[in-house]
Amino acid sequence: MLKGMFKKTYTLIDTRYSSARGEKNTKKEEEPSIPEGLWRKCNKCGQPIYVEDVIDNHYVCPKCGGYFRIHAYRRIQMLVDEGTFEEWDKEMPFSNPLDFPGYEKKVLAAKEKTKLNEAIVIGKGEICGYPAVIGVCDARFLMSSMGHIVGEKITRAVERATKDKLPVILFAASGGARMQEGIVSLMQMAKTSAALKRHHEAGQLFISVLTDPTTGGVTASFAMLGDIIIAEPKALIGFAGPRVIEQTIGQKLPEGFQRAEFLLEHGFVDMVVERKDQKQVIGQLLKLHVKEHSFFAGGVKEMKAQIALAKEEGRSSQILEVSSEGGKTAWDTVLISRKAGRPTAADYIERLFDGFIELHGDRCFKDDGAIMGGIAMYHGMPVTVIGQVKGKNTKENIKRNFGMPSPEGYRKALRLMEQAETFGRPIICFVDTPGAFCGLEAEERGQGEAIARNLFAMSSLKVPILSIVIGEGGSGGALAMAVANEVWMLENGIYSILSPEGFASILWKDSKKAPDAARVMKITAADLYRMGLIERVIPEADGLQPGTMAGTIAHMEKAMDAFFEGLEGMSGQQLAESRYKRFRNM
Questions:
Q1: pLDDT per residue over 8-28, tens digit each?
Q2: How far apart are CA 302 and CA 299, in angstroms?
Q3: What's the pTM value of the predicted model, to 2 decimals?
Q4: What secondary structure, in 3-state letters, does 415-463 show?
């Protein structure tokens, strides 16, 4: 159906383009000319551009990369598998709840101009073979302001998706509430949010995609409630428009303020995705949320089947012999755990999991580079993976804050853990931090509260949690990601109440006694295993580097297989109870 809707447009472009190339033109073959409509001027860079080039480039200027706003049906055509879209509630009766003068005439004009009944198109389709309920706002219709029909169409779609156990994907583009409907428009914010709350409680996925512009009441309701929030590059996103803010505060706003990249930096969106990649990314996200693959719905069986197939085909990782350095002191282990070039959480994520999609932000203040988190597959079973990440050079260390998370990092981690619980995904945490960031701004934003909140919430999460100390496990900053059903350590990892230097300074008033402190603190993997505080020690190759990880990865993978198999059949409540008892007995 959609393909037919654009046949006329594409035919017109093809005819004009052929003429411009000098192909047979019976009227003026001797006088080549550029037909009207073939060229357009980019309203962002001012350069002349071929209409067909813009269409082929997903309605993005091929010269400056500027994004053009696109019609709802065009976006659906770009996103949905051909022939699978079924529109819902296409025609809904108009009403003027406030009897606002001239409103009906304005709506009729918008209908005539856009050939739409209202400012959003709703329906069901498949994306990369995965079914979903899809809604796309069209800014041509009264700037896609949210009147009662828009709110009703969204709410009906979400309710139907909840009943049919389908994910929801909404593409927002709006100037906000519809002024001509007053308080009735305002109520749509609550109505759509309430429907999405029920959808969330039913364990269904909601992906919100923010396009240019997404402002006003839409950002204060459905657009910012996605389990995963995607934004288009440079899209204007904000509650109050920039002009309103400038007039209110009497100041010029900084460059890039309220743009998609600004929101990513400040923790409010998970990712900024180019239009050409959106179908693939959304398709992968849908795949990662197929219920039948989750831990509680056969995910472990799928994992075991994939492992068995890999062994049968000779693709399984072989556990290589790894030799440990003999005669190490505790201080030697401390130095090894801190060694530059040691594999980071990012290295383990890359080698252990498939299709990792990183998610960003705490939805409150910032995206903390010291913590990386997202969703991936482990032998066909979706998992949530979170790691404290150090840099491998000065530039990376500055970006990662030397692996010392701020409050927003712990809040991001908790957001992803709670999301994992909603969708029945096991959580794997990689711990590697000298400790939580100790600074003025961290205290201002509640470092202690953020860590405490993680301990509080992780204790009762109803999915499996595995934490692996791969380097330094420094104090509460490490524990905030290690309230797990099992905690493992790499052979040369350390896990301590604070650094040996700090311990020596506090108790002995001499930081130079750090080697002695390391010995008496019992902070090595071997010490903690003997004390029953961790469940497993993963052996390492001498001088472990990203290029020599094969043996360690194989050991870790085999242990993870056994971990998940051992928990198979346990309910969420049993998993939480097991975790509680683990710490209760210490």
A1: 333 333 333 333 333 344 443
A2: 5
A3: 0.91
A4: HHHHHHHHCCCCEEEEEEECCCCCCHHHHHCCHHHHHHHHHHHHCCCCC
